[in-house]
Amino acid sequence: MASAGAAVDNPFFARIWPYIAAHEVEAIKALRRENLAGLSGRVLEVGAGIGTNFPHYPESVDEVVAVEPEQRLTVQARAAADVVPVRVVVHGDTVEAFSGGEPFDAVVCSLVLCSVADPGDVLQRLHSLLRPGGELRYLEHVASRGMRGRLQRFADATVWPRLFGNCHTHRDTEREIVAAGFEVQTARREETLPAWAPLPVSELALGRARRP
């Protein structure tokens, strides 16, 4: 859930996120692996956090270029990059400021579009960094319906974004993906906590979208 804004300084989030990421439930770990399965070529990962995804990249990936603008997390992401078989280069930039060079074959977003200041702008930037036919792989917190949706709106309007790195749980992320020019190829929703759990981040969207 690392943010991609102009200046990222989240000392509380940077303190708690490594613990949260290290204790993810198996359901989320499995979704991370599925999100990265079959990737190849040159990949851009946005909001890498502490590098939780890095061990799950397949050997078919030539290089992962990861951006993580929270400098406390950047240090940990670089340490994680040093101990995985796939080549990973970590940049301490926002995605808006990042200069990508050659177009990427794929972009990976994992629990990050909920926390950027303007997901529409970020997605348009990602669209521009992909080659035609390139993939966006996403695993994201998304808006729920009913009682959980009401809880999400309350959480987003109160303390949740301040505590958790600007995370907004009630976003229509898939609509924003389509609006940025992507064609969604596959998508589904997964509940990672029991229906009665009083947390707004239970429902995740897992999908693959393509730049035409």
From TrEMBL:
Enzyme class label: transferase
The organism's lineage is: Bacteria, Bacillati, Actinomycetota, Actinomycetes, Mycobacteriales
Which GO terms are recorded in the biological process aspect for this UniProt protein?
methylation
Name the chain's protein: Class I SAM-dependent methyltransferase
Which EC numbers does the record give?
2.1.1.222, 2.1.1.64
Which InterPro entries does the UniProt entry name for this protein?
A: SAM-dependent_MTases_sf, Thiol_S-MT
Q: Which UniProt keywords apply?
A: Methyltransferase, Transferase
Q: Which SUPFAM superfamilies match?
A: S-adenosyl-L-methionine-dependent methyltransferases (SSF53335)
On the tree of life, the source organism's domain of life is Bacteria
Alphabetized Pfam families for the sequence = Methyltransf_23 (PF13489)
Single GO term (MF): 3-demethylubiquinol 3-O-methyltransferase activity
- To which species is this protein native? Mycobacterium servetii
